[in-house]
Amino acid sequence: MANTQGPQGNYDPAGSTQMFRAFVDEAPQGRQRQAPSSGPRVGVIVGVVVALVVVAGVAWLALK
């Protein structure tokens, strides 16, 4: 029969919500949380605008 339990002392933080939250909230030493930047969002917006301009240009040339 297989031993499904891990070795003593190793716990699965996903085993309970409380243990998982404690595991996630532990900040490693020397590491600080950074505020999310708007860089990726600006890039997506610019990409969508460029794609729309290209599609509009192709449609204009096709209907010309």
Folded structure, characterized:
The chain is an all-alpha fold and 64 residues long. It contains 2 helices and no strands. It has helices at residues 17-25, 39-63. The longest helix has 25 residues, at 39-63. It is elongated, with a radius of gyration of 25 Å.
Write out key terms for the chains shown.
2 helices, 64 residues
Give the helices and strands, then pairings.
Layout: H1 17-25, H2 39-63
Element pattern in H and E: HH
Task: Identify low-pLDDT runs.
Answer: none
Q: What average pLDDT do the residues reach?
A: 75
Name the overall outline.
elongated
Structural class: mainly alpha
User: What's the tally of helices?
Assistant: 2
Beta-strand percent range:
under 5%
User: Percent range for helical residues?
Assistant: 40-55%
State the total count of DSSP E strands.
0
Cα separation of the termini:
75 Å
Give a quick account of the main beta sheet: strands, pairing sense, barrel closure.
Answer: none
Radius of gyration from the CA trace? 25 Å
Sum this structure up briefly:
With 64 residues, this protein is an all-alpha fold. Helix content is 53%, strand content 0%.
